[in-house]
Amino acid sequence: MALVNEHFLKLQNSYLFADIAKKVNSFKITHPKDKIIRLGIGDVTQPLPEAVRAAMHKAVDDMGSRETFRGYGPDQGYAFLIDAIIKNDYAARGITIDPSEVFISDGAKCDTGNIGDILRRDNNIGVTDPVYPVYIDSNVMAGRAGVYDGSKWSDVVYIPCTAENHFVPDLPSRRVDILYLCYPNNPTGTTLPKEELRKWVNYALENDVIIMYDAAYEAYIQDPEIPHSIYEIKGAKKVAIEFRSFSKTAGFTGVRCGYSIVPKELNGFTVDGKPISLNALWNRRFTTKFNGASYITQRGAEAVYSPEGKQQVKALIDYYMTNARIMREGLLQCGLDVYGGENAPYIWLKTPGNIPSWKFFEKLLYEVKIVGTPGVGFGPSGEGYLRLTAFGDRDETQEAVERLKNSL
Ligand code: PLP
């Protein structure tokens, strides 16, 4: 008899976005003529940069000739992409990364979800709350989350990030072994100043904590004082894994490419206290269960770092950040409390009159025909908030803001 992993049975039945889709679809059936503007899901809308497409076309041609055809690629990714990443994303900020510390993947969701494979089941997990749901669900699957009480998992340490603490998390009150930090943050769109990030790195150094640092939105940082990488903080290579993605940077949500940095200095421990290189363990996990992002994809990602690619990516990010500004300004004019949207493509709204997130979601859908994401779907501290994304089309974003101004 094949027994299943019963931890999967503890997962919440319907995923946040499935619940939203259900409500939107019923509304569409009953109001077929109404134009709905979707500012809910965090997918991009603008096409791939020209430089990326040209590189991918050329890579397809490479595959068509005997001399330039590529089969299985190198274990951790092609040197051309790893070198471009090191040079542009790290050396340019004074950070030294060895090629063996870079793992090219098919995206940050897979990496943040899979990394738990190399860690024991009985580690204590800490997350900032509200949180990107993958960190929680992947730990539920591994049996690390405990029991769900309808709002929280018993074995997860939730670190609230709300307007009351200016979205700056306090150090946890309970012991954690693995801590997930995501900056710029999804869903709140807020960032962490350098001195706050330093506080976390020092805490991790003093308490043998591993930080899973998700920097999927670093390309949206506008303020030069805000760190793009956790390795800008001294000592971080001893305590942190960093996850990056080309999804939101360069429109790769459908192409699929990301990477992780697992420093050689970073150790986990056996139960009897023996240090073990996480880089070696992750290499073993990675090469056993994954065969690499395609050559065509990696050539496309490499082009993000070409002079034209950089310009086109900047234009893409400027486009979304202009949407964010339009939304922020419009919503502020409506008298709403608005957070994020200055160094991130997400706007985090306090619901007017503190009405529950789902009620406000329904009000926006039924009265203004705009789809947001209820904040409570990201964790208990998201109750009373709603997330809007700046990834929409410009005209639709403008129309959404006009509708909100007229209605709120
Ligand atoms: N990390 C965060 C915080 C995200 O919000 C997302 C996507 O929404 C991802 C990772 C997923 O990135 P990818 O498309 O590279 O899997």
Question: What's the gist of this structure?
Answer:
By secondary structure, the chain is α/β, with parallel strands linked by helices.
Structure commentary:
By secondary structure, the chain is of the alpha/beta class. It folds into two domains: 7-47 and 308-407, Aspartate Aminotransferase, domain 1 (Alpha-Beta Complex), CATH 3.90.1150; 53-305, Aspartate Aminotransferase, domain 2 (3-Layer(aba) Sandwich). Helices cover 37% and strands 14% of the residues. It is built from twelve helices and 15 strands. The protein has helices spanning 16-30, 50-63, 79-90, 108-114, 133-141, 194-207, 247-250, 278-289, 295-303, 307-333, 357-368, 394-407, and strands at 37-38, 102-105, 125-129, 156-160, 178-182, 210-214, 240-245, 258-261, 267-269, 275-277, 338-340, 346-350, 370-371, 373-374, 385-389. A seven-stranded mixed β-sheet has the order 2-8-7-6-5-3-4, sandwiched between helices. A four-stranded antiparallel β-sheet has the order 11-12-15-14. A two-stranded parallel ribbon has the order 1-13. It starts with 15 loop residues before the first helix and ends with a helix. 46% of the residues are buried. Bound molecules: pyridoxal-5'-phosphate. Residues 42, 107-109, 112, 132, 182, 186, 214, 216, 245, 247, 253, 258 line the site of pyridoxal-5'-phosphate. Pyridoxal-5'-phosphate (PLP) binds next to α4.
